[in-house]
Design a protein that fits this description.
Number of strands: 13
Helix content: 10-25%
Strand order of the largest sheet: 6-5-4-3-2-1-13-12-11-10-9-8-7
Number of helices: 4
Strand content: over 45%
Radius of gyration: 17 Å
Structural class: mainly beta
Distance between the termini: 23 Å
Order of helices and strands: HHEEEEEEHEEEEEEEH
Mean pLDDT: 87
Largest sheet: 13 strands, antiparallel
Length: 255
């Protein structure tokens, strides 16, 4: 999961916030979407830093408060878009997911090893694309500022993206800081399509970029909380990107 001040992204790795919130209040004097995006890119460190071909590794804690689950997490991202995440919960084991640049996959004690397809794979591919770090126009059919919103008391501009695939996602950028504070999307899952709302907070600088160190996600009535304590830039162990044996077996068998 690349931590580039975005939910990251990471398809199944969509990181998020509080669930039911009012729809954006549409107004007449909305700033152009590109202006909002350019301000965001500048706020996190600038286009050169955001598009630099470097590997990153983020680590921290994982929690599902309602279930009393706590654990650790680590994510790794390569410049070509390959990424992987491992969440370790004592008593449960490892929850793994990744994208090789061509194949999306996941493996956990409940569902076993599987290759992603359909909407799940499309979402992961799109969020893993390095161009997404600066919201490159080539990724979208259209990008539009659709209104104003507010998250945790932070007023923001809400931007809607219609991807080349037809998928629609929304992101909210603080009027004050320019940083992304929330994202809203529909995600494919083994249980069908679900809404994921994400909240990004407590930005800190690692290397040349700002990263949100508190990420909250809510979907299907469950909230997950991720707190990052370290983001390593450049000097990264890429071993996590290698698919586990069970996943590689599926890949070799053609899915």
């Amino acid at each position: 999961m690349t931590m580039h001040a975005r939910p990251s992204r990471i398809g199944a790795f969509a990181l998020a916030l509080i669930a039911a919130l009012p729809l954006a209040v549409r107004g007449q004097d909305l700033p152009p979407a590109q202006e909002v995006i350019d301000r965001y890119v500048e706020a996190i460190g600038g286009r050169a830093a955001a598009t630099a071909e470097i590997s990153t590794q983020a680590s921290g804690s994982f929690e599902v408060p309602a279930m009393g689950l706590t654990g650790t997490l680590v994510t790794v991202n390569a410049p070509d878009g390959a990424m992987a995440m491992k969440v370790t919960v004592p008593g449960m084991g490892d929850i793994l997911s990744g994208y090789t640049g061509e194949v999306g996959w996941s493996m956990d004690p409940m569902t076993g090893a599987r290759l992603l397809e359909g909407g799940e794979l499309t979402s992961m591919e799109e969020q893993a694309d390095p161009r997404y770090r600066v919201r490159d126009a080539a990724l979208f059919q259209s990008v539009e500022t659709v209104g104003e919103n507010e998250f945790e008391g932070d007023a923001c501009w809400e931007v809607q993206y219609t991807w080349i695939s037809g998928r629609v996602t929304n992101e909210c950028f603080s009027k004050d800081s320019g940083l992304m504070v929330a994202s809203i999307s529909m995600q494919e899952s083994p249980m069908g399509e679900v809404e994921v709302v994400s909240l990004m907070q407590n930005y800190e600088q690692f290397g040349d970029l700002l990263y949100p160190t508190l990420l909250r996600q809510q979907m299907m009535g469950q909230e997950q909380v991720m707190r990052l304590t370290e983001v390593r830039v450049g000097d990264v162990d890429l071993q996590l990107l290698v698919p586990p044996t069970a996943i590689q077996t599926l890949i070799d068998a053609g899915g």
